[in-house]
């Protein structure tokens, strides 16, 4: 009986400390499983050499064999015929039917990225609310012990 009296308050304090610690650490964000999935069109080029600074590469299009330099927006522009991005359009995706496959790949990737962004935002919001919940729980406890 005596042991119970001595041990349990310590045990409770420890448990609380552990719980507080866990609340202080950020819960891990749901990670995008494969970051490369956001940039699917990299699959259609061969990276030749990394250009220092940023995500730029020297790359060769596996469809038209053209050699280019730049980061993903240029790869994308090459296949999707987006003009004004400083890269030639791929002549192998000139046919809208052919280009459609690349557009679909990119759209699917954009959808996945949006979904991940939403999940990340939701999880950040949830974790920023946690401290208030803990505080309110403490306040309730304090009020109860006064009674
Ligand atoms: Zn090409």
Structure description:
The protein has 147 residues and is mostly helical. The chain has a domain at 30-129. It contains 3 helices and 3 strands. It has a 3-stranded antiparallel sheet, with helices on one face. The protein binds zinc ion (ZN). Zinc ion (ZN) binds at residues 61, 63-64, 66, 78, 90, 92.
Integer-rounded radius of gyration: 27 Å
Query: Structural class per helix/strand content?
Result: mainly alpha
- Portion of residues in beta strands equals 5-15%
Main sheet: strands, sense, barrel: 3 strands, antiparallel
In which range does the helix fraction lie? 55-70%
Number of helices: 3
Main sheet strand line-up: 1-2-3
Low-confidence stretches: 24-30
Q: Would you list the SSEs in sequence order as H and E?
A: HEEEHH
Distance between the termini: 26 Å
